[in-house]
Amino acid sequence: MNKEAITNIDLLKVIKKRWSPRAFSERPVEKEKLIEIFEAARWSASGYNEQPWRFIVGIKGTGTTWQKIYNSLMEANQLWCYRTPVLVLLIGKKTFSHDNSVNHWYQYDVGQAAAYISMQAIKNELYAHQLGGLNTKEAAKSFDIPDDYEVFTAMAIGYLDSPDVLADNLKEMELKSRTRKKLDEIVFSDKWNSKSEILFS
Ligand SMILES: Cc1cc2nc3c(=O)[nH]c(=O)nc-3n(C[C@H](O)[C@H](O)[C@H](O)COP(=O)(O)O)c2cc1C
Fold first, then answer.
1. Does 139 reside within a domain?
2. What separation in Å is there between the alpha carbon of 196 and the centre of ligand 1?
3. Structural domain tally of the chain?
4. Which of 52, 121, 132, 173 is 20 to 30 A from 21, alpha carbon to alpha carbon?
């Protein structure tokens, strides 16, 4: 299925191709491709180069990690994540390691690393669907995550399958076209909410 960004602008191929599917194939994901994904996250930028991101990776059918992440998901996400071969928990360290002061950018940095994961996945025809709908407290407890760290999101990673594997209501969402705000709603110059000079031709 093609859900590429509809744009006349010459975007990077991975940005154009990335989207958030629900119809994941049950095909396992090769370990070397997962390593590639987390290596990409590793090279993301971060405030003070703190690298506050941490990832807990669950492979379906091995150990208990996948199941624990799955159990923490909201039911609406469980309804399609049950097929996903890889579930990841994204966590951030709240303080700087060099002086224990509060790191005001740890959330920003983890989000940025998540974007790198999503892009690198596309290189190998893999897709990452980020999930805020989870019980973060339950997830933190089930993995004994220390207080200095915060669970933010989960992520489903896998190959695409046909939308037909989904229940009807989810299939409808899968087939819906992707929408975005216009550039002049998000890019300003001069004053707040004014159309940016870069958009005048
Ligand atoms: C922080 C965050 C939380 C999200 N939480 C969920 C979620 O709980 N369930 C879900 O189905 N999609 C979730 N999404 C996916 C968004 O709905 C999706 O990215 C958005 O609709 C744009 O679609 P696209 O990624 O296909 O371009 C989340 C995305 C982000 C970045």
1. yes
2. 28
3. 1
4. 52
- Tell me the CATH number at 79: 3.40.109.10
Residue nearest to atom 15 of ligand 1 (CA): 130
Kindly indicate the confidence band of residue 1, based on its pLDDT and cuts at 50, 70 and 90: confident
20 CB less than 6 Å from ligand 1?
Answer: yes
78 lines ligand 1 (CB under 6 A): no
- pLDDT value at 90 more than 90: yes
* Predicted local distance difference test score (pLDDT) of residue 159: 98
**Host domain of residue 73:** 20-177
Distance 100 CA to ligand 1 centre (A): 32
C-beta of residue 98 within 8 angstroms of C-beta of residue 155: no
Ramachandran angles phi, psi of 139, nearest 5°: -65, -45
Residue 21, pLDDT score: 98
> How buried is residue 137: exposed, middle or buried, by Cβ count under 10 Å (0-12/13-18/19+)?
exposed
Is 198 part of a structural domain of the chain? no
Q: Does the Cβ of 84 fall within 6 Å of ligand 1?
A: no
